[in-house]
Task: inverse folding
């Protein structure tokens, strides 16, 4: 299947006027893009803070229970990682120790 020759970029460029850029227009566009990038970065930061920030407890007991829960989750993650690491080492010919 062949495309008509009017779809090729090099044939349409013959009729277009070349775009000229000045230093001022480049500087203005760069500053605008920097502002846009900063706004996007701030939006992403705020969204990640909302998604992953721990919930605030309504009283001291809720806050304490939340801290205990986070500590247990961290310990559980660490122990799971250690167990997986030991199995992987054993799979690749590590020492045959029983833990």
Result:
């Amino acid at each position: 299947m062949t495309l008509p020759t009017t779809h090729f970029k090099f044939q349409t460029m013959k009729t277009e006027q070349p775009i000229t850029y000045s230093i001022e227009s480049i500087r203005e566009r760069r500053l605008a893009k920097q502002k846009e990038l900063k706004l996007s970065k701030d939006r992403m930061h705020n969204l990640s803070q909302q998604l992953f920030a721990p919930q605030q407890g309504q009283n001291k007991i809720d806050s304490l229970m939340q801290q205990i829960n986070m500590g247990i989750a961290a310990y559980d993650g660490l122990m799971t990682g250690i167990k997986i690491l030991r199995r992987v080492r054993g799979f690749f010919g590590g020492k045959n120790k029983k833990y």
